[in-house]
Structure formats: structure tokens, C-alpha cells
Design goal:
two-stranded antiparallel ribbon, six-stranded antiparallel sheet, globular, single chain, alpha+beta
Length: 282
């Protein structure tokens, strides 16, 4: 049995006890919950591939026994699964089942669906709807066009640090500048693991804010490019990003002249429809 797979004794680890007793023991429950959620967010980035315990330790800054103890508890509750072959950890079925009870809490997904399909039909390429959750971007919908070669650069449910993708750049560029800066500072280590330094991310955010869209000549998948625009609600509050990903020769700078107006018009229609839905529920 490897160190990764070792079964730890059930007692609370010493660093948790010392940390929390230092604050009078009042925050023991809150600290444990925050740690568990931080681990679940990291696991969400691994999707079906899973995440190694070594990577969880590095990204959370927690020690290995603490991470192992939390993972074991989450596995017992069905919130985490471990692949018996790779030993990697993944989000478990219980999390999805809990989320289904509040599907209506992401109204932009249901509102945007026909408009995303229209974009995919018109341009022939893959279209993605992405929202923000804390310091991450999450793809909540994807539509594919008629072009034979599909660029499926990201799965629905995929979570990535804000600042990595064109959608993440849009979600930062049109957020409050102080909020945006807090996010990139908080994501510094994660962005570095994607080969990005903060000065480059800031430059791209400023460029996106200036242009009104984010464009990457090198997409997540080699040989592809990506374009993203913001979606606002009726009150001009940023709610999501809509992106198109395609083979590099199908998303040339010249083609942006026709794609950007198409996407922007559909984003405006989504905003109008969101306003109607929100008005009806107030």
C-alpha cells in the first residue's frame, strides 16, 4: 500500500486541533467545512480524470494527513470517489444530486439555451456558456455547430481558475476592478501552473476590457483559437460569458468582423430575456 493510500487513524489531526484551539475552538466546524469545500473545488477541476492527493496538498496548503482525513470523510458521505486503479480523487454523485435540487438558481443557462444554439448554427462551431463561481469559471452549457471537426475544448461542468481561458478573462475584465485584482492575486499559484504570470494576465484583462471581448490565437486545445464576449443582465450586471472555440483557420482575425456582431446581438437578446424572467419573479 502506497503512502497515498494509507489508512489513517480516525482521530483529528494535531495541526487542526492546535489551529482551532488557538482561536478558542470556536471555528473548528467552520474551518473544517471551508477545507472540505476547497478540496471539492479542486477535485472539480479534474473532472473524470481525477486529482492526485499530492496536487490537493499543494493547492490547498494543508498537510497530507489533514487532506487524507477530509477525503476519507467525503468518500464516506458519497461526495468524493477514488478511482481504484489510478488512486485519483473525483467529485462524487452526492454533490450532483444535491445540485439538482436548485437547478433554477442558474437562470442564465435556461434562458441562454436557444440563443447559444443559434450562434452554433450560424457559425458552425462550438459555443460555450460560462459563469463565475468564486475564483473559478464553470462551463454550464455547450452547443456544437455543423462543422465536421468539433473543438470540444471544455466539458460542461469543467471548472478552471479565472484568468486562464477567454471566458475567464471576460468574467474578470467586466467585474469590479478591485474584485478582479483580488481574484488574480488569489489565483497566482494556480495561474503559474498554467504558465501565466500576473503581469500577462493583467495585460490581457485590460485588453479585453478595452476591446469588449477576449480573443486567444492559441486556444486550450493546440491548433485552435477562441473568442468570448460578456453577457449582462437587464441591469447591466455581468452574469456570464459566451465563447466560440474553433480550428485556428476558422477563427482568424478577419472572421472576427462577422462573429463578434453575431455573438453580441445574441448576448443582448439573452439580457433582454433575463430581464423579462427576473421581472416576472419579483
Amino acid at each position: 500500500m502506497s503512502h497515498d493510500d494509507a489508512i489513517l487513524p480516525p482521530e483529528v489531526d494535531s495541526d487542526t486541533v492546535s489551529d482551532d484551539m488557538a482561536e478558542g475552538g470556536k471555528t473548528l466546524g467552520a474551518r473544517s467545512i471551508r477545507r472540505a469545500l476547497a478540496i471539492l473545488r479542486i477535485l472539480a477541476t479534474g473532472q473524470e480524470h481525477g486529482v492526485r492527493i499530492t496536487d490537493i496538498v499543494r493547492e490547498t496548503g494543508l498537510n497530507r494527513p489533514t487532506v487524507h482525513r477530509i477525503l476519507r470523510t467525503l468518500i464516506e458521505e458519497g461526495a468524493v470517489e477514488q478511482d481504484p486503479n489510478t488512486r485519483r480523487y473525483m467529485v462524487g454523485p452526492e454533490v450532483s444530486l444535491l445540485g439538482m435540487s436548485r437547478a433554477a438558481r442558474v437562470p442564465v443557462k435556461s434562458v441562454a439555451e436557444p440563443y447559444l444554439r443559434h450562434i452554433a448554427e450560424q457559425c458552425g462551431d462550438s459555443v460555450f456558456l460560462t459563469i463565475r463561481s468564486g475564483f473559478d469559471s464553470i462551463c454550464v452549457d455547450r452547443k456544437t455547430g455543423s462543422y465536421p471537426v468539433k473543438v470540444l475544448s471544455i466539458e460542461v461542468g469543467a471548472r478552471r481558475p479565472l484568468g486562464v481561458s477567454v471566458s475567464g478573462l471576460v468574467l474578470l475584465a467586466f467585474a469590479d476592478p478591485d474584485d478582479s485584482e483580488e481574484v488574480i492575486l488569489g489565483n497566482e499559484q494556480r495561474l503559474a501552473s498554467h504558465g501565466l504570470d500576473l503581469s500577462e494576465v493583467r495585460r490581457r484583462i485590460n485588453e479585453t476590457r478595452s476591446l469588449g471581448y477576449a480573443y486567444s490565437q492559441v486556444g486550450v486545445v493546440p491548433g485552435t483559437r477562441a473568442l468570448a464576449l460578456p453577457i449582462f443582465d437587464a441591469n447591466q450586471q455581468l452574469v456570464a460569458s459566451v465563447a466560440v472555440s474553433a480550428l485556428a483557420d476558422r477563427l482568424s482575425p478577419e472572421r472576427l468582423a462577422s462573429l463578434i456582431p453575431l455573438i453580441r446581438h445574441q448576448a443582448e437578446l439573452i439580457a433582454k430575456r433575463l430581464g423579462e424572467v427576473q421581472a416576472r419573479h419579483h
